[in-house]
Write a structure and sequence with these properties.
The complex is a heterodimer of chains A (113) and B (109). Chain A has 113 residues and is mostly beta strands. Chain A has no helices and eleven strands. In chain B, the strands form two sheets. In chain B, strands 2, 4, 5, 9, 10 and 11 form a six-stranded mixed β-sheet that branches. The N and C termini of chain B lie far apart (40 Å). Classes of the chains: A mainly beta (113), B mainly beta (109).
């Protein structure tokens, strides 16, 4: 595996379900990100982890709970979501430095019924 | 507040040239990125500009003017596979990426 991988690629869940999204990066980077992408809107940064510590939480509702057990893995735990949470959830990684170019996974398309 | 502006949609013809503009107002500046995103896929990195001027990479070029808060992405010899959304993003003084909403580029034969 190379680059950034995400599973599952598609997820349909009810509002009372609990599910988790998984991201793995094979680039040796030290920072990882969760983004939400809704149609015709800018990418919304949800969480940033640097060296496995959360450094940013952009006022995301508590029904989204991130976990970063090591520098290669990132999870997003979901519970009691709302239909408006339906979106593409993207994971990215980068290496600290001048440009900090972010490399993205393919995303998880989430539908909340 | 911080703001990135780019056109919502553009249409161009196969084989032609198209320029996608991006203007920004951010708290500080540590570089500007262009990403390409095909429908249903991940954004992929195209270019990074931190100094004024034009950077060329094959059929794609990116220009930056920091004094004007302006960048453009130039695509030459357009191909059907260039149909995608193009995202402009600025790295601010806190090294946070501020994203535009993206420009959907439609290529017609």
């Amino acid at each position: 595996e190379t680059g950034v991988t995400q599973t599952p690629r598609h997820l349909v869940m009810g509002m009372t379900n609990k599910k988790s999204l998984k991201c793995e990066q094979h680039l040796g980077h030290n920072a990882m990100y969760w983004y939400k992408q809704s149609a015709k809107k800018p990418l919304e940064l949800m969480f940033v982890y640097s060296l496995e510590e959360r450094v940013e939480n952009n006022s995301v509702p508590s029904r989204f709970s991130p976990e970063c057990p090591n520098s290669s893995h990132l999870f997003l735990h979901l519970h009691t979501l709302q239909p408006e949470d339906s979106a593409l959830y993207l994971c990215a990684s980068s290496q600290d430095g001048d440009s900090r170019t972010q490399y993205f996974g393919p995303g998880t398309r989430l539908l909340v019924l | 507040g911080q703001n990135i502006d780019q056109p919502t949609e553009m249409t161009a013809t196969e084989g032609a040239i198209v320029q996608i503009n991006c203007t920004y107002q951010t708290s500080g500046f540590n570089g500007l990125f262009w990403y390409q995103q095909h429908a249903g896929e991940a954004p992929t990195f195209l270019s990074y500009n931190v100094l004024d001027g034009l950077e060329e990479k094959g059929r794609f070029s990116s220009f930056l003017s920091r004094s004007k808060g302006y960048s453009y992405l130039l695509l030459k010899e357009l191909q059907m596979k260039d149909s995608a959304s193009y995202l402009c993003a600025v790295l601010d003084s806190n090294y946070q990426l501020i994203w535009g909403a993206g420009t959907k580029l439609i290529i017609k034969p």
